[in-house]
# Entry
Amino acid sequence: MRRQEEDIEKRNVSSAERGYAIENRDKNWISWLIPVFVAANVAMFVVEMSSNNCPKHIKNRGSRFGDNNNNNKCVARFLGRFSFQPLRENPLFGPSSSTLDRLGALNWSKVVHHHQGWRLISCMWLHAGVIHLVINMLSLVFIGIRLEQHFGFLRIGLIYLISGFGGSVLSSLFIQHRISVGASGALFGLLGAMLSELITNWSIYSNKVAALLTLLVIVVINLAIGILPRVNNFAHIGGFLTGFLLGFVLLPRPQFGWLERHNLPAGVRVRSKYKAYQYVLWLVSLVLLVAGFSVGLAMVFRGVNGYKHCRWCRYLSCVPTSRWKCNEH
# Structure
């Protein structure tokens, strides 16, 4: 019996990587939710631009203030009501701040003082401009489809939505003097989930160090972009941390020995579904998620200013240089 177990163990070890490939092949879901998310974001941006109606907005403003400066003309005026605000107002080729605010952008004052907590969710579906939209949607397709094919729509959908909400909560603690949109927080949640999935399933990957370093470089570059002015890096950080913890909870892969339990001879001990460290990471991450959301939401609705508790945190979102200043306080 002992020799039989050893033979099976050798076959399992030599087939470990193949075993996970088999699992992925047998459970290779068709990605449909990520394309739906992409379509929803694009449709929402069309609604933004239609509601913005730049020509009418500029005309009304000019009649009130007598401002006919060429710098105040809409961009791509041939698009009619879908044309963009002047670049000095929105360099990302998008709507005005007032339009974004009207459609549900994250506005700390309205969330806290006017009981509009729904903005923590609605801001996830808004984009500041075409450039913002295109970058996010290309990244979402590249990252999200692969994850959905491997883990299914339910888990990836939960990670996307909860991460976006996490980004909104962290933003509300620090971005309190201007509006912001939080679509990138959900995307960074998927990046965080990819990193934790690699860690929790570490033993099954070949070239694991190269994969980890590549992913870390991508994450660092994207977070570094967030230190530029007008970019809400707190949504990025909040979404990334939420997705990172959710990856440990939702994306662990079972051991190969457990997957092959039905093919084992009678009397052979069946391995547990997950390894011990995967259970530990699952529990710790779940506790941190519950505690983080509980404390964060309590602080948001009490009107707490995060900068009063973390003065250096302002440099996580914007680093002042000789070329630009950071006005958030």
Notes: Residues 8-26 have pLDDT under 50 and may be disordered. Residues 111 and 118 are 8 Å apart (CA to CA).
